[in-house]
Each structure stands twice: as C-alpha cells, then as structure tokens.
Amino acid sequence: MAAKEYDLIVLGAGPVGENVADRAVQRGLTAALVEHELVGGECSYWACMPSKALLRPAQALRAARQVEGAREAVTGALDVAAVLARRDSFTHDWNDDSQVRWAEGAGIAVVRGHGRFTAAKEVTVSTPDGGEVLLRARHAVVVSTGSDPLIPDIDGLRDADPWTSRDATSAKVTPESLAIIGGGVVATEMATAYASFGTEVTLISRGGLLAGMEPFAGEMVAEALRDAGAKVLLQTGTTRVRRAGESVTLETGDGESITAQEVLVATGRTPRTRDIGLDTVGLTPGDWLETDDTLRVKGFDWLYATGDVNHRALLTHQGKYQARAAGDVIAARAQGRPVSDGAWGTHVATADHEAVPQVTFTDPEVASVGLTLRAATAAGYRVRAVDYEIGYVAGASVHADGYKGTARMVVDEDRKVVLGATFVGPDVSELLQAATIAVVAQVPLDRLWHAVPAYPTINEVWLRLLETYGRP
Known about the structure:
Blueprint: E1 3-11, H1 15-26, E2 31-35, H2 41-45, H3 48-65, H4 80-90, H5 97-105, E3 109-112, E4 114-119, E5 122-126, E6 132-143, E7 147-149, H6 165-170, E8 177-181, H7 185-196, E9 200-204, H8 215-227, E10 231-233, E11 238-244, E12 247-252, E13 257-260, E14 262-265, E15 269-271, E16 303-305, H9 316-334, H10 351-354, E17 357-360, E18 365-370, H11 373-378, E19 383-389, H12 394-399, E20 406-412, E21 417-425, H13 432-441, H14 445-448, H15 461-469
Parallel strand pairs: 1-2, 1-6, 2-3, 6-16, 8-9, 8-14, 9-10
Antiparallel strand pairs: 4-5, 5-6, 7-15, 11-12, 12-13, 17-18, 18-21, 19-20, 20-21
Helix pairs in contact: 1-9, 3-4, 3-7
C-alpha cells in the first residue's frame, strides 16, 4: 500500500485538531486531518454548542422576568420543541459538510476513518468502506482525539443504559424525569437546562457542586436549582442502579430510592486513547498523554498531544489555545526557525497552569479565571481574598431587579497582582475577559485603579473590589 505523505498528521478533527492543522498550513506545511466521526468534533455536535443552545432560551426568559415592565410582557412558557429545533440548527442536524468544506478550502486534507499508529510517524486509517489508507508524517503527528464520559463503577449502572453528556445534548424529546449523577459543570448545566424544560430533575453528588471552584459558586448554584424545582442531594453517593422497562431506580448511600425515566452520568472524563495504537510507539493505551509546554509528548521529538487528551485543561478554548501554539511550533521546528518556548512565549501554553478561564452556564452563571483562594494557598502564595456583593453595584440593579451575585478577587500580597477572580450572577460571563487579562498580564493593583469601569455597568464591581482591598 503506497503511503500518502504530509508534513503533519492530526488524529481527531474537532476544533482543537482543526486549529493545529490550520495553523501549520498557514505557516507553509502540508497537513491531514483524520476523523472517524464528524469533522468539528465533540464541541460542535455534542458539547459546547448544543448545550449552550439548550441553556440560552431559558436564560433569556429569566432575564425578561427579572425586569419590571418586561416581566408583564411575558405571557407564555418556554417552547421546548422550538428550543430543540434551534439546537438542531447549531449542529446542522449532525451533518459536517460545511466543516469539511472549510477544512479542504483551508488546504487541509480530510481523511475519513479510524486512525491508528502502525510505526513512528505512521498512521494507518481504516476507512468506512472497509479499506485502508497509509499516512506518513515528515515532521509530526498530533493526537487530538479528545475524551469520553467516565462511567463509574456503580452496581448496575452500565446495564441501566445511562445517558452520557452526548445523549443529554442531542435528545429529540425531553424525559418527564431525569436523575443526574455528578456535581460538576456538565451535571449542573444539564440540571439547569432540563429543569427549565419542565423535567423533574434530581441531582446526586458525592460532594458539593462545582468542587474545584470557590465554595460560594456551588452553594449559589445549588440554591438556584432548588428554586427551579430540582431536587439536589449533596454529600450523597449512588450505590446501585436498576432499569425496569421505561424507568430507572437509583439507591443512595443514605438509603433513599429515586426513580426516573432516564439517568445521566456526569462524573468526569477519560482519554480517548485506548484504540489508536499507542503501544506501537511505546505508550500505554488508555492513558492521558503528558506533554511539555510546547505540547510535545514527553520522550518524543515528533509526537504532540493537544486538547483534552493531555489532561492540562479540559476546555475547548484552552485546547484551541494549545493548538495555536502547537501548530506554530511544529512549523518552526520543521523549517528550522527559532522556537519561542520561554514563559509566555509564542510556542508555549503557559496559561494552562494558573490562568485558565471558564464559564459554567448555570443559573446563575459562574465565571472564573486563575487560582481560587484554596488553590493559591496550596501553591504557596501569600494571598488575600476580597469579596463583594455584585447586587450592590448600580449597573447590576439596573440590569435585573433584585440582582443576586458575588465576586471574589484573589490577590498575591507580595506582588500585589490578581491571581484569580470568580463571579457568580446573571450574565457575569461578560466580566471574565477583563479578569483574564488582569491575571495573564499580571497587572499591578495600582495600575488597575486606572482601568475605569463604565457607569452604570456590572463591570463597576471591579472598582468596588479594589476599594474593598484598599489603595496600595
């Protein structure tokens, strides 16, 4: 079988893989994307886009109801069928023709099928028609295969045919009742969405909600879910699951029995590396791929890993950030150009360590970047946390009647810079980029005093946080 040669081969054509290939091609390399499902990947069809399309209509409806004058104009309930139809428009009904056209128009070859390593810099693709295509990379192969939902070892759970995040975001009809196992982003977002559809939601978490964030974030989200009619069980384990016909029964460690039409498992992710031939190149199938900051897999000079699969930051925007660095550095190394691999250099993903932004699109929203108070303390920083109730800000009171929200700024007391920020409240996602710039640029507090927030906007919370901290 004659091999097709490219400078770069990318396994996985999600947004991360697409960006690696595109960046390398823009810099003069040839590249091939290998994909066995849909070009555009998890984010486009089963995660970021469809989930936010499910959440946004109820968010808009709540926003109208929180403003007197607009509230009186709302006379109907959420049209769930219309919400699902709008979701389908974002996924193009799970058709990737437009994504393929984009890739090919950008000069990237698209190879359909399941790719596996068969030698160093060599990938054999099993095509849908039963054939094989042999690909060889002149310079690099990038693994961008993403991750799969983790199904925990709970008695009877696998046999109960549980939903994963894919089922929740692509459902054609909404169940009358839904039990959710988990307390992280997927669990809380899907609890928010399905509660808004009128589904009877029960969320069961072994700990609190949003455990990696500031404690008040999970507390406020739990309160809002309960206000929306969801049952939220915290510090509660699930010990047994049984399906009988059209219903599923869950037993908790507290002895409670919960019956629902469907059960959604949202307890974490596992790397999609089990069946890509890693053993052929000396790695363990099913493992996360550890990389240096240029995204090169440790121990290799030709193998890279970007996105979820390297376990640095399981977020699409961070994966795309890694992809830009990886595509650039692969091209630089291939062409013998200098590599900028110092902290915050062109060819590194420095922000993965302590400057990762994230939005959880619950009600209320949670927007965070950088280190929490607990994480900063554990990292050895001498820190101070400053909190402020966002509802006290004039712009927030105009934005929504009875606005409820909390902001926290975590300050490095030695350098007087912001290490992290968390905002919880309606539409706080729009505050996040300013916080991200402050954290990434390590803007001194005395300079932040000169970043004047427009009045009356919710951004005025920045001034209030600085005033609460006190002028350096």
